[in-house]
UniProtKB/TrEMBL annotation:
Native organism: Favolaschia claudopus
Descriptive protein name: Neutral cholesterol ester hydrolase 1
Keywords (A to Z) from UniProt: Hydrolase
Lineage: Eukaryota, Fungi, Dikarya, Basidiomycota, Agaricomycotina
PANTHER family: AB HYDROLASE SUPERFAMILY PROTEIN C4A8.06C, ALPHA_BETA HYDROLASE FOLD-3 DOMAIN-CONTAINING PROTEIN-RELATED
Positions of the Alpha/beta hydrolase fold-3 domain: 62-255
Any one Gene Ontology molecular-function term assigned to this protein's record: hydrolase activity
Entries under SUPFAM superfamilies matching the protein: alpha/beta-Hydrolases
Domain of life from the UniProt record: Eukaryota
Database matches in Pfam families: Abhydrolase_3
Coiled-coil positions: none
InterPro entries for the chain: AB_hydrolase_3, AB_hydrolase_fold, GDXG_lipolytic_enzyme
Length: 318
């Protein structure tokens, strides 16, 4: 049986989602925080309800936080989850153990299964329209969830945002993000050795698709996918590689900073932005760059929601 803590539904602020003073993320709360019997120690599963019309059922987005499998919590994504909820989605930000591979993906798979069977949510949840999305480490797990036999046929769309797809680093451009225009430094290459040490045990096959999704086939990841990268992100190249692979566009020269779309794969690269640019802790220097970041983030969420509505054949007015 699931336990829960009620939170009062937050009122959608007229302030910008990415206002820096005060940070908007601190002012929004989930509708519910629940614990599920399958993972009783993971108590911070944060559920954001959309505006609801009696008798209506809503698609579900499972949101997976980043932090290199070492840091972070679902609360980091409250602003993003709240925004998606205002667009008509039930958003479930999942908790998981900050532990070595493959413990986190086992946690997440069990929790997704538990949420989809939650009798409290079933009356308003459309379990035929399930999306998984995540940021950075959460984007890796998004691509892992898609491959699991128990979930593959239940997940209808994926939105990995700035994923690491190759833990071996063979697809990475070591110079990307070093000379950026936005006024900060790309920190991921500095932190990556710590993440590697914490997440990967000695002897693990770095080409295991459940660790490095770049080595998964299209048959292993069959869902429509919307990739988000950015040109000053050190992970940009490996995200672009997997997107092209899943779209059947392997081989030849290509520009990883150019966006494109096929029937089932969309690839968007945001110019001149770093890793995790869609979160509050990336604050470009100067008003012009702050405004540019806000515009890029707002445009990206609008584009993602429109794509999901189309893929799920959902009326955005519902």
């Amino acid at each position: 049986m699931a336990s829960r803590i009620y939170r009062p539904p937050s009122v959608f602020s007229r302030l910008s989602l990415y206002s820096l003073d005060p940070p908007f993320w601190a002012s929004v709360s989930p509708t519910l925080i629940k614990t599920y019997a399958c993972r009783p120690l993971l108590k911070d599963n944060r559920i954001h309800f959309p505006p609801h019309i009696p008798g209506q059922r809503h698609p579900v987005i499972f949101l997976i936080h980043g932090g290199g499998f070492v840091l972070g919590s679902p609360s980091m994504d409250d602003a993003q989850a709240h925004l998606l909820a205002t667009k008509g989605y039930i958003v479930v930000s999942l908790d998981y153990s900050l532990a070595r591979f493959p413990i986190p993906h086992r946690d997440l798979a069990a929790l997704i299964d538990a949420v989809l069977a939650d009798e409290e949510l079933l009356p308003i949840m459309d379990t035929d329209k399930v999306v998984v999305s995540g940021f950075s480490a959460g984007a890796v797990m998004t691509l892992v969830m898609a491959q699991l036999p128990e979930l593959k046929n239940r997940i209808k769309a994926l939105v990995p945002i700035q994923p690491l797809t190759d833990w071996s680093g063979s697809l990475r451009d070591p110079t990307r993000g070093r000379n950026n225009a936005w006024g900060g430094k790309e920190k991921l290459p500095i932190d990556q050795p710590t993440f590697d040490w914490a997440y990967i045990s000695a002897g693990v096959d770095m080409h295991d698709p459940l660790l490095s999704p770049a080595f998964a086939s299209r048959e292993a990841i069959p869902q429509p996918v919307f990739f988000v990268t950015s040109s000053d992100d050190s992970l940009c190249d490996e995200g672009a590689f997997l997107a092209r692979k899943l779209a059947g566009k392997e081989g030849g020269d290509f520009d990883v900073t150019e966006s494109w779309e096929t029937d089932t794969v969309r690839y968007e690269c945001v110019k001149d932005m770093p890793h995790t640019f869609m979160h509050f802790w990336v604050q470009p220097k100067g008003e012009a760059w702050q405004a540019r970041k806000k515009e890029a983030v707002d445009d990206m969420w609008e584009t993602i929601v429109a794509w999901l509505d189309r893929i799920l054949e959902r009326d955005p007015k519902s």
